[in-house]
Design goal:
The protein folds into 3 domains: 101 residues; 114 residues, no CATH class; 119 residues, Four Helix Bundle (Hemerythrin (Met), subunit A). A hairpin with a 2-residue loop joins β3 and β4. It has 458 residues and is mostly helical.
Length: 458
């Protein structure tokens, strides 16, 4: 039995090494088949990203090297059955030209090692299990390696069938019918197409340019096509005809781009003015005008139009909010203005005291007599604020005015104590209180000015 396993091992190695190494081609040209039957060339593999197919289209002769341009088309335009089948064929060819023989060499080593292990194992059941495991792994190999040298693998499977049959007999088990074992036939694949000539690559590029959803992508590709063809091409030649077509399409795209850009700039400028005036009806008219103008231009820029309308919707929302705020303010305007008039005497006292407050902050005075006057002014301001009941929305501002008065009184008293005791630390306490009072007064004024003035656009 040992001689049989050694012979099988030698046969396996001979079969697996009988193939000749392939010469790898330098380029992999894939095909993307469209629903109308057109086959676009993809230089290298393509990628499906969302609802788009991204690939590199060659422009010009494939040899020695074409110009390459990254493009995308809608995946709904692709015949995926034909495209996927052809892609597998190209991958199988590339695999055979690059990694196939190396992987097959590794497989040959695994097969020989498995057969040797079977030969050296004493236990009959263990030998059978090893042989069946090795055969199973061998049968799976072509499925994961593009069916490379599947016929050689099939011969090896029959060899393993003989081994397994003998091992089963040696273990006292019935032999199996060889025909029950599945063979590994290479899958049927479409033939590879010849590399396109230069004219075909330009035709493909023009087709892709018409299919591209992004106008910037169309313009870029058309510019690449025209740049790749000499303006001095012989009249009547295919180069001149293709360049003329590409130049005409490019001029059209640039004109359309300009028209839609002008529409967007004009519309947004007017929309901004309408939004600042809270002119809701004006912005609604602009949206209708955009749709009408888009229809007149042929609806060639759906993405730009959608973006413009979306921006107008935002301006419309701003105008509606501003109109509501102004109407609400108008309803409360009389109450707010009455409150502003009622506290004006207190605000005036605070403004008149600003110079003395700054002297306290800067440790530059004022005189003791001025401190007395400052305290009398704050008492008057407090009485005014106490008599006034603010509207609900002005409660916070009113509290800030009251806190400002208290902080100024505290600053004046601390300054008086510092003067009496000639204590610099107390003078700095007065300075801090004066600084806090000034900040609170400014915040209170800002808040009341905001709430008693008509709402402004954001």
């Amino acid at each position: 039995m040992l001689w049989f396993f050694r012979r099988a091992s030698v046969v396996a190695v001979c079969l697996l090494w009988s193939g000749s190494p392939a010469i790898a081609s330098e380029k992999a040209l894939y095909r993307i088949f469209l629903q109308d039957g057109t086959a676009l060339v993809s230089y290298g593999e393509f990628a499906r990203v969302g609802d788009r197919v991204v690939f590199t289209v060659p422009i010009g002769a494939i040899e020695p090297s074409p110009q390459l341009h990254l493009v995308s088309i809608a995946d709904s335009a692709v015949d995926w059955r034909r495209t996927d089948e052809y892609t597998e064929t190209v991958r199988a060819r590339r695999y055979a030209e690059t990694r196939g023989e190396d992987d097959f060499a590794a497989l040959s080593n695994h097969v020989a090692a498995a057969l040797n292990e079977v030969a050296l194992t004493k236990d009959a059941s263990r030998r059978l299990a090893l042989a069946e495991e090795a055969r199973g792994n061998l049968a799976e190999w072509p499925k994961h390696n593009y069916g490379y040298r599947a016929s050689d693998v099939t011969q090896l499977l029959w060899l393993f069938d003989d081994v397994i049959s003998n091992l089963r007999a040696a273990a006292g088990l019935p032999r199996l019918e060889f025909s029950l074992y599945a063979t590994t036939a290479p899958p049927a694949r479409p033939d590879l197409l010849a590399a396109p000539d230069a004219r075909a690559t330009f035709d493909h590029a023009l087709t892709v340019a018409r299919m591209a959803a992004d106008p910037n992508e169309r313009v870029s590709l058309l510019q690449a096509i025209t740049a790749a063809l000499s303006p001095a091409a012989t009249a009547g030649s295919w180069e001149a005809a293709v360049r003329e077509r590409a130049a005409a399409e490019l001029a059209f795209e640039l004109r359309v781009t300009h028209l839609y850009k002008d529409l967007a700039e004009r519309t947004l400028g007017v929309a901004e003015r309408h939004a600042r005036r809270a002119d809701v009806r004006g912005i609604e008219r602009l949206i209708r005008n955009v749709h009408a103008e888009d229809a007149r231009l042929g609806r060639f820029r759906p993405q730009e139009t959608a973006a413009l309308v979306a921006t107008l919707d935002l301006r419309l929302d701003d105008a509606r909010r501003l109109r509501l705020a102004r109407d609400s303010w108008a309803l409360r305007g009389a109450t707010l203005r009455a409150y502003r008039a009622a506290i004006e005497p207190a605000v005036a006292q605070l403004r008149r005291s600003a110079t003395w407050l700054e002297d306290i902050r800067a440790l530059a005075g004022p005189s003791p007599g001025s401190l007395t006057v400052l305290e009398r002014r704050m008492a008057a301001a407090r009485r005014t604020l106490t008599r006034v009941k603010p509207p609900a929305e002005l409660d916070a501002a009113h509290v800030l005015f009251e806190s400002t008065v208290k902080m100024i009184v505290r600053a004046a008293q601390s300054r008086r104590n510092a003067v009496k005791s000639n204590d610099m630390a107390v003078a700095w306490e007065a300075s801090s209180a004066a600084a806090g009072a000034r900040l609170m007064f400014e915040r209170a004024l800002d808040e009341i000015n905001r709430l008693t003035s008509p709402p402004q656009p954001r």
